[in-house]
Amino acid sequence: MAAENQLHVTFRDEDIESLRKQMLSFARLQLDDEHLAEDAVQEALAGALKNASSFSRQSTLKTWVFSILRRKIADVLRGQYREPVREACKECSTDDDELFDGRGHWQAGATPRRWGDTHELADSTQFWQVFDTCLEALPAEQARVFMMREFIELDSAEICASLELSTSNLHVLLHRARLKLRACLSDHWFEREA
Amino acid sequence: MLSCEQATRLLSEGQDRTLTFPEKMNLKVHTAMCSGCREFGRQLGSLRTLIQEEKDAGPAPGKK
Ligand SMILES: [Zn+2]
């Protein structure tokens, strides 16, 4: 398969095979139909691997691949229930926010504080483990647009076109993603208890 | 006067598009007085730089 050839550049076959297995068991749980599950995994994997070279770590690739798989599964489920083509952007609603108070000002505990030196942090394996955990904790759609923007470096227009999102929805998703990601990194890395 | 939620939204959008002059002015006024949003803006920049450094250093020897 063409998509797989591209991949050899960065990831080993075993890595992909183990990723595929994890995807399949996830898809089976969601779809309850072996064929649909395999199709979804195949499509998601092929789609995801086109950009695999943007992800140099296996764990980030996994988050990326799963964000695509979740979307595929949602598409399949939507098709089964014959719902309207595009659901409203459900992660766009600006509710349930622990970050801001009723007037839109930072809650006391949520106010960003200085991160300190990020020099050479990129070399820290532990930091990227925390980063991946934080990325994975985001709602799938937010994680996905964040990765498209920051790792694959697509511009807004390209992301909107490929996901059929309006520009303002995209900006909302990226805003939410960045708010949560930086809060998570602060909690679990920059301001963690020693 | 922008709220912090609005200010962070603009700071985030500033990573993805060029802000208009009035938007920039509003942000300047807000961040001059608000350390939380000032740090937020800084951290977005750090995040982007970190991801860039990590990608550049990534173990992808045969990258095309
Ligand atoms: Zn503020």
Describe the secondary-structure layout.
The complex is a heterodimer of chains A (194) and B (64).
Chain A: H1 2-7, H2 13-31, H3 34-49, H4 58-81, H5 125-137, H6 140-150, H7 156-163, H8 167-190
Helix pairs in contact in A: 2-3, 2-4, 3-4, 4-6, 5-8, 6-8
Chain B: H1 4-13, H2 21-33, H3 35-57
The structure holds zinc ion.
Zinc ion (ZN) binds at residues 4, 7, 30, 34, 36-37 of chain B.
Primary descriptors:
heterodimer; A: 194 residues; mainly alpha; Rna Polymerase Sigma Factor, Chain: A; Arc Repressor Mutant, subunit A; 2 domains; 8 helices; B: 64 residues; binds zinc ion
Question: Can you walk me through this structure?
Answer:
Chain A: Belongs to the sigma-70 factor family. ECF subfamily. Chain A: GO terms for molecular function: DNA binding; sigma factor activity. Chain A: It comes from Thalassolituus maritimus. The complex is a heterodimer of chains A (194) and B (64). With 194 residues, chain A is mainly α. Chain A is 62% helix and 0% strand. Chain A folds into 2 domains: 1-87, Rna Polymerase Sigma Factor, Chain: A (Orthogonal Bundle), CATH 1.10.1740; 89-194, Orthogonal Bundle (Arc Repressor Mutant, subunit A). Chain A has 8 helices and no strands. In chain A, helix 3 packs across helix 4. The longest helix of chain A has 24 residues, at 58-81. Chain B has 64 residues and is an all-alpha fold. Chain B has one domain. Chain B has helices at 4-13, 21-33, 35-57. In chain B, helix 1 (4-13) crosses helix 2 and helix 2 crosses helix 3. Chain B starts with a helix and ends in a 7-residue tail after the last helix. Mean pLDDT of chain B is 89; it is low at 60-64. The interface between A and B is large, with 39 and 36 residues. The structure holds zinc ion. Zinc ion binds at residues 4, 7, 30, 34, 36-37 of chain B.
